[in-house]
Amino acid sequence: MTSVLVLGGDGFCGWPTALHLSAKGYRVGIADNFSRRLIDEELGANSLTPIATLSERLSAWKQLGYGEIPFYEIDLAKDYAQLLEVLKEFRPDAVVHFAEQRSAPYSMTNARHKRYTVENNISATHNLLVALVELDMDTHVVHLGTVGVYGYDGSELAMPEGYLDVIIKGPDGRQYQRSILYPTQPGSIYHMTKSMDQLMFQFFAHNDRLRITDLHQGVVWGIQTDETRRHESLINRFDYDGDYGTVLNRFLLQAVMGHPLTVHGTGGQTRGFINIQDTVTCIRLAIENPPHQGDRVKIFNQVAETRRVRDLAKMVASHTGAQVAYVDNPRNEAAENELEVLNLGFSSLGLNPILLEQEEFHETLQIVERYRSRYVEATVAARSLWTRHQKPGTITKE
Ligand SMILES: NC(=O)c1ccc[n+]([C@@H]2O[C@H](COP(=O)([O-])OP(=O)(O)OC[C@H]3O[C@@H](n4cnc5c(N)ncnc54)[C@H](O)[C@@H]3O)[C@@H](O)[C@H]2O)c1
User: Fold this and answer.
1) Distance CA 166, CA 164 (A)
2) What is the per-residue pLDDT across 317-346, written as a single tens digit (0 to 9) for each?
């Protein structure tokens, strides 16, 4: 039986992934330090859905007749000795690495958050790679990166899957062919850490022949998966605050609450999107199709489609009757950009993704309606500013 250790398995993507793999017959373990739950407390924010404690979640899963999922409470960035022990005990065939601070706005708030995001994300990734080398384990590392590493510079070039084949004219006048990592253009400290992860992966795959897959994921939308629907205690988290709420989920929440959908700037930003159900499928497909020892890092774009933010707002507005409000953009980014992302890797493995259609909004709208009493309005507005030269956002047009 294939063993998979899910690092960050209490989070939005990690929890449904752990359940999906368990339901598919994998032997699954979870490691997490609950930092995400603690950050909610720090921000005075909450998941709109009432998420059970991890031990309640795990016992609900067991009561449904699935395998026991052991849990290791460990800070990957700090507890290196404990990480070695966990790896020695669990002996995973694959590790799925979600355990990073994942909010771009949070990473930009202040010096403390910038330093935390770098120290947490870089150390967590590096500790994992060093530990596998120290233990001489041939564990396949599947890491969740982001499409954002490519940058959103408005070019019409379809984003390749991680690598760029280039011809360089050398000083001797000859032409040299190289395949290089696509030059990163991080738009936040968070994205910068994901760019730095890529270099660590390149080094460890080459130097130590670690088998690594890096998934460049788009913005995830939706809440539930086939497995999290099976019991109320398994419900997935739903973030809607200005730091962790992702754009489409926030629009759906604002529509239910009767608030205007707040679009940053002109809403001309184009982003990649994927449904949470497809996230868990992609991760399983990545585990089932590992690279060989000595291969370069396998990079897949984990994106179903790209959409412009104002088009999404209009789509939600036409479905729900909500108003759209344009507010100052707190981010330092192009007002408008084109984005096309190739996803040949997963489509060749048979992924047939859920695409954004209005009927796909029903479940999220229903869940938001059910838990509307838990809504904390004060947390929704984006609070982080990207540069020293900005002022807090205002509604500019309705
Ligand atoms: N959610 C998205 O839309 C999205 C999009 C693209 C990429 N991703 C990537 O997917 C991964 C998971 O995202 P998510 O939305 O599930 O985030 P999340 O914050 O909900 O989950 C991350 C989990 O990792 C844990 N964690 C963080 N640092 C840790 C540490 N040092 N030691 C142990 N555990 C730690 C947290 O407690 C949390 O449970 C992230 O790396 C993120 O960058 C997410």
Assistant:
1) 6
2) 999 999 999 998 888 888 888 888 999 999
* 190 catalytic per annotation: yes
Structure tokens at 278: 């497809």
Ligand 1 proximal residues by C-beta, below 6 Å: 8, 10-14, 32-36, 75-77, 98-102, 120, 124, 144, 146, 217, 219-220, 246
> Amino acid identity, residue 281?
T
CA distance 334 to 233: 41
Chain segment 152-162, per-residue pLDDT in tens: 876 788 999 99
Domains of the chain in sequence order: 3-397 (3.40.50.720)
Distance 69 CA to ligand 1 centre (A): 19
Q: Is 194 in the active site?
A: yes
Specify the DSSP element, H or E, that contains 165: strand 163-169
Do the Cβ atoms of 86 and 7 come closer than 8 Å? no
Strands (DSSP E) contained in 334-393 are 340-341
Question: How high is the pLDDT of residue 395?
Answer: 44
Q: How far is the CA of 143 from the centre of ligand 1 (A)?
A: 11
Q: 342-398, pLDDT tens digit by residue?
A: 999 999 999 999 999 887 899 999 999 999 999 999 998 887 888 877 765 544 444
* Gap from CA of 362 to ligand 1 centroid (Å): 26
Residues paired with 325 in a beta bridge? 262
Distance separating alpha carbons of residues 91 and 135, to the nearest angstrom: 10
Evaluate whether 227 touches 20 at the Cβ level (below 8 Å).
yes
**From the candidates 116, 150, 190, 371, which is the catalytic residue?**
190
Q: How far is CA 23 from CA 27, 59, 233, 279, in A?
A: 9, 15, 16, 15
Q: What is the spatial distance between Cα 393 and Cα 304, in angstroms, rounded to a whole number?
A: 31
**Which residue owns the Cα nearest ligand 1 atom 29?**
99
